Amino acid sequence: MDDFTGLRRNMVDCQLRTYDVTDRAVLAAADIVPREAFVPGSLQHLAYLDQSIALPGTGRALMTPMVIARMIQVLDLQAGENALEYGGASGYGSALMARMGAKVTLWEPDSAARAFAETALKSAGAADVAIAAAQPAAESFDVILVSGACETSPETLFPLLRAEGRLIAVEGVGRSARVKLYRKSTDIVAGRPVFDAAAPVLSEFRRPEAFVF
Q: Which strand (E) or helix (H) includes residue 119?
């Protein structure tokens, strides 16, 4: 057992399981996918800590392991479903979902993060994850994982959901942040809060600054 294998097992046992992550498929994926592959070599010592990790040279960061794992659990992801990770930085969430048997696309508008993801996913054995620079076709996905916090509603992503599709995102910042699960029924998308959590804010979902006289 190498050092990272031990750290990964400790993350699963001491972070995920204690944060109500109980789904066997999620835990198995987290126990196998090498999170250290999704951060630069100089930051690999941080890969399994209970903290988000900003990726140098990009505008993105990886969410904490327990938040992203629990979000995937709430999505109730099934093998064979088409899944999208939006704003996934280097693609750790995509690798987890691919390991669970989903057909995964990473849509990452940040070009520097997207370039790093191409290398990271191959290194982690998840080369089958599709990487998109532009918006995918409408009604393409059964589930969408938004890997960052949104100060405004992620409603621009709703058209990408198929009927009965699910989308999950962190909404708000600081102590007011909540993870919200949306479900599409015909043309109506309704959401509900599922647990409290915080994450780095995605720049495209920042609230516009109010004009002050």
A: helix 111-123
Asked if residue 170 lies in contact with residue 177, where contact means CB atoms within 8 angstroms, the answer is: yes
Give dist(CA 145, CA 141) in Å, integer.
Answer: 10
Residue 95, domain extent: 3-205
Mean pLDDT of the chain: 95
Coil, helix or strand at residue 205: helix
Locus of tokens 């059964």: 142
Helix (H, G, I), strand (E, B) or coil at 22: coil
CATH number of 69's domain = 3.40.50.150
CA distance 103 to 113: 21
> In this predicted model, what pLDDT tens digit does every residue of 3-27 receive, in sequence order?
999 999 999 999 999 999 999 999 9
Backbone angles phi, psi at 37, to 5 degrees: -70, -15
